[in-house]
Design brief:
This protein is mostly helical. It has one domain: Up-down Bundle (Rhopdopsin 7-helix transmembrane proteins). 82% of the residues lie in helices and 0% in strands. The protein contains 9 helices and no strands.
């Protein structure tokens, strides 16, 4: 086996470039393991497990293309951008499935259905028909990611409103739903600006783009997995 790819990968991480990759991968493996033990028996648990597993497998493919493949850099960037766009889509569908089961507000649910239909049409149009017209798959990835997180803000705010409007005897920090929503809410708020400027950072070769990616993408993404892990560890139905 050619070990040069592993050497390149570890040297890149040791230099501080793309340091978020191993952090995110460790958090994903932890979330997958805990979900498998405590939450896989429910439909929502299966949905989250499938989402995390999908993202983990995509990450492995990304590592291969970044560090082991001899494909041209342009092709590698295109692959990474398009696969990450698919991750954003799967992420939205899974979290919306969760919110449909948790939220009580009928009007918000109707709005979410409209947003989901819009996102699906937007995703297909942008990814399949407009990818070459826009000029860079990186643009596609940034636009889809930003739209996804904007669409997650409405159900997140609604969840918090319903949570704090209703009296309950359940400890806030023992509610799996609280950890799930807080993780994706934090990830959304922090990462929306990053998704809007990610293509500019790459094109301009901004010297702090690796640090910005770590702080505005990898760290909040990893935290969302840690919060999912905490939710699984509550050993309660995830809708509570």
């Amino acid at each position: 086996m050619d070990l040069s790819g592993f050497q390149k990968m570890f040297e890149t991480w040791a230099a501080g470039n793309r340091l978020g990759e191993p952090i995110m991968t460790i958090c994903e493996i932890l979330a997958l393991t805990i979900c498998l033990f405590y939450s896989i028996r429910t439909n929502i648990g299966k949905a989250f497990f499938s989402y995390i597993l999908f993202d983990f497998l995509i990450a492995l493919f990304d590592y291969y293309f970044m560090y082991f493949s001899e494909a041209p850099q342009k092709k590698r960037i295109e692959f990474l951008s398009i696969t990450n766009a698919w991750v954003s889509a799967v992420e939205l569908y899974v979290y919306y499935y969760f919110f449909f089961r948790v939220l009580q507000n009928i009007i918000v649910k109707h709005v979410m259905r409209v947003l989901l239909i819009f996102f699906t049409l937007f995703f297909v149009e942008l990814l399949i028909f407009k990818v070459y017209e826009i000029g860079s798959p990186k643009n596609i990835y940034g636009i889809i990611g930003a739209v996804e997180f904007l669409f997650l803000l409405l159900p997140s705010f609604t969840y918090y409103f319903e949570l704090f409007s209703n009296q309950t005897s359940v400890d806030l920090f023992k509610r799996p739903s609280f950890w799930i929503v807080t993780g994706i809410f934090f990830y959304s708020v922090v990462s929306i600006p990053y998704y809007l400027i990610v293509n500019f950072l790459e094109v301009s070769k901004y010297h702090l783009r690796s640090e910005l990616a770590l702080l505005m993408f990898y760290v909040p993404f990893s935290i969302s997995f840690l919060f999912l892990t905490k939710a699984f560890l509550c050993k309660k139905p995830l809708t509570i």
